[in-house]
Design a protein that fits this description.
The chain is an all-alpha fold. It has 10 helices and no strands.
Length: 244
């Protein structure tokens, strides 16, 4: 209740009212409204009810502030989960890449570093793009696109594209791991590269992208956020400040 003045100001600005227009609705002077908002004076219970009616909110929203919408709480939880995943992936990259480079320099075997470039570098860029837009959305009050058929189709299409890229890389990853095991002297060698012409035609540009410019995946991550990924399946509940 110490922030009644701030609550009145925030709710008034949210409704797009100036102090003069708000004062007219309350049949008081602009200075009275200013005194309420700065905390110089406090409205009595009758005035609180008038303020709530003018702002189309409940009295408890004036007293304690509007409740945080369920969608915003869910966005914060998603941000926390995405941030943790990003931190873990970035930590793995920061630790493993120097080790892989040192291993390559000492043993002339680049497979560990190649695997990191193919798998973890794109993953961290994808997470970074999504988390950056999620954080910006929370700070600026921005939201993903509203769910429409074309938005849903675009989201499914982008996820399918990323899944196809992962599936395309899988045979290469299996071959690379097998080569690494052979080098380490693990029984069961004889790993051969999946060298079909059609497969190579698809794999080669993807590997070049992953090796040379994994930051492109940050655009995919940002696009996924804009298209509303992940979908929670719930509907937004009205806040205490939006219901009279």
């Amino acid at each position: 209740m110490r922030d009644i003045g701030k609550n009145i100001r925030d709710l008034r600005e949210r409704k797009g009212l100036t102090q003069e227009a708000f004062a007219e609705q309350l049949f008081v002077t602009r200075q009275t409204v200013s005194n309420y908002e700065t905390g110089r004076t406090r409205p009595d219970i009758e005035m609180l009810m008038k303020i709530a009616a003018a702002l189309e909110v409940r009295v408890d929203a004036v007293l304690y502030g509007p409740k945080v919408p369920q969608s915003r709480r869910a966005a914060r939880r998603r941000m926390a989960a995405g941030g943790c995943l990003l931190a873990l992936t970035a930590g793995a990259v920061a630790v493993l890449h120097p080790l892989a480079r040192a291993f390559a320099a000492a043993r002339y075997v680049t497979v560990p570093n190649d695997l990191l470039s193919v798998l973890l570098d794109p993953a961290i860029a994808l997470l970074l793009g999504w988390c950056a837009l999620q954080a910006a959305g929370l700070l600026l009050g921005a939201r993903p696109l509203k769910e429409r058929p074309w938005v849903k189709n675009a989201r499914i299409g982008l996820l399918a594209l990323l899944a196809a890229c992962a599936a395309l890389v899988c045979p290469y990853v299996v071959w690379a791991l097998g080569t690494l095991f052979d080098w380490a002297g693990t029984p069961g060698g004889g790993w051969t590269f999946p060298a079909g012409a059609f497969y190579l035609a698809l794999l080669t540009p993807l590997l070049r992208l992953n090796f040379s410019c994994p930051a492109v995946y940050a655009l995919f991550g940002a696009a996924l956020w804009g298209l509303g990924f992940p979908r929670t399946g719930g509907t937004e509940k009205p806040s205490g400040g939006d219901v009279k």
